[in-house]
Amino acid sequence: MAEVTNELLYEVLKPIQREVSLLREGQAQAREEMIARRSHVHAIQQDVNNIYGILARHDARLDRIERRLDLVGTH
């Protein structure tokens, strides 16, 4: 059986340390991408909300125009 020395442990742990470092870098990149996507989705939600607001105003305006022109029956 081979003798376990500090040098041997060090040689085994060096590649593991490099791999852990690479994993951390990958995790940081994935986190940044997720934050960017979350911001993009938030911007899209804001755009959709703005469109709904515009449609609601146009709908209300169209209702007033139809009533003024007596195009809709009053029940």
UniProtKB/TrEMBL annotation:
Domain of life: Bacteria
Designated name of the protein: Uncharacterized protein
Organism of provenance: Xanthobacter tagetidis
